[in-house]
Structure formats: C-alpha cells, structure tokens
C-alpha cells in the first residue's frame, strides 16, 4: 500500500464547543489556514485547516454526528488528553511568541530538546494539547537526533 505523495496521511481530528471561534483562534495563534468549512450557523459539521503540508480536521462538539459522541473534551476529563498533535515549525521561537501573544496556555516552556530540535507545548482556547517544534522525524536518522 502506498501513501499519497502530497499532504499528510495522518490527520488529527478535534472537536470544539465553539468551533467557529476555535478556527479563528487557530489561524491567529498557530498560523493555520481554513481550507474548507462546512457549517450551518454556529454549528461546524466539518472543517479542514492546513499548516504547511499538514492538516487537522475539526467540528462542533454537538454537530449531530456519530463521531462526536465518541469524543470528550479536555475539560470533561480534568484537562487530560489521550492524544495530541505535534506540528513541525521552521522557527519555533517566532511560533512560540505568536501563540503566547494570542493567549495559548503554556504547559512546557520552549527549550532545546535532547533528541534534537527546539520546541514547546501549549493548550489552545478549549484545552487541547499541542506540541510545536523544529525536530523533523522525517529527516532524522533512525535512533539518532
């Protein structure tokens, strides 16, 4: 089985109580760009946001779909997550400054990492956990930074 040669083959999917506000915030704070938004009023059924060659998909918590019934929000489980997104950025310090200016909640301050690269972790406006850093596992040798 072969993967497509453009874009990401793994796309994180998130739910937001206020998906419209989340889209605007993710664009402002993290530099995403809304590629597609399918909505009716304040309810977002499906949205695709891109960053470089990566993408996330999101929708409103209460959008009437079966998928949303399977997902809980971080605030429902004391801010804990079972998954998070890792986004490769070329300038982690500039990205960090942008996210902080937009009000991202820092959970791990920016630092050089032992395995290579530089990065930080934060929560978005509804508590989802994100990692942003310059380490690119596609360009690292297996087992070494």
Instruction: Bin the helical content.
Output: 10-25%
Following the backbone from N to C, one meets helices and strands in this order, namely: EHEEEEHEEE
Rounded to an integer, what's the Rg over CA atoms? 16 Å
**Which regions contain 5 or more consecutive residues with pLDDT less than 50?**
none
Helix-and-strand structural type? alpha/beta
Q: What is the CATH topology assignment?
A: 2,3-Dihydroxybiphenyl 1,2-Dioxygenase, domain 1
Number of domains: 1
Sheet with most strands: strand arrangement: 1-4-3-2
Task: Give the DSSP E fraction (strand runs of 2 or more residues).
Answer: 35-45%
Give the termini distance in whole angstroms: 28 Å
Number of strands: 8
What is the top-level CATH class?
Answer: Alpha Beta
Give me the secondary-structure topology.
Elements: E1 13-16, H1 19-30, E2 33-40, E3 43-51, E4 54-60, E5 85-88, H2 92-101, E6 105-112, E7 118-123, E8 129-133
Parallel strand pairs: 1-4, 5-8
Antiparallel strand pairs: 2-3, 3-4, 6-7, 7-8
Which descriptors apply to this entry?
8 strands, four-stranded mixed β-sheet, 2,3-Dihydroxybiphenyl 1,2-Dioxygenase, domain 1, 2 helices, globular, 35% strand, alpha/beta, 145 residues
Task: Describe the fold and architecture.
The protein has a single domain, classed as 2,3-Dihydroxybiphenyl 1,2-Dioxygenase, domain 1, CATH 3.10.180. The chain is globular, with a radius of gyration of 16 Å. It has helices at 19-30, 92-101; strands spanning 13-16, 33-40, 43-51, 54-60, 85-88, 105-112, 118-123, 129-133. Helices cover 15% and strands 35% of the residues. It has a 4-stranded mixed β-sheet with strand order 1-4-3-2, with helices on one face. The chain has a 4-stranded mixed β-sheet with strand order 5-8-7-6, with helices on one face. The mean pLDDT is 90. The chain has 145 residues and is an alpha/beta fold. The chain contains 2 helices and 8 strands; from the N terminus they run βαββββαβββ.
């Amino acid at each position: 089985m072969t993967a497509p040669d453009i874009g990401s083959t793994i796309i994180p999917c998130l739910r937001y109580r206020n998906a419209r506000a989340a889209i605007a915030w993710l664009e402002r704070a993290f530099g995403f760009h809304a590629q597609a938004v399918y909505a009716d009023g304040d309810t977002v059924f499906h949205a695709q946001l891109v960053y470089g060659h990566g993408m996330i998909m999101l929708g409103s918590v209460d959008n009437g779909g079966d998928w949303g019934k399977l997902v809980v929000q971080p605030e429902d489980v004391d801010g804990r997550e079972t998954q998070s997104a890792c986004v490769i950025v070329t300038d982690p310090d500039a990205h960090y400054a942008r996210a902080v200016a937009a009000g991202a909640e820092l959970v791990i301050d920016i630092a050089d990492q032992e395995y290579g690269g530089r990065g930080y972790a934060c929560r978005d406006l509804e508590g989802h956990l994100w990692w942003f850093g310059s380490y690119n596992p596609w360009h690292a040798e297996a087992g070494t930074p």
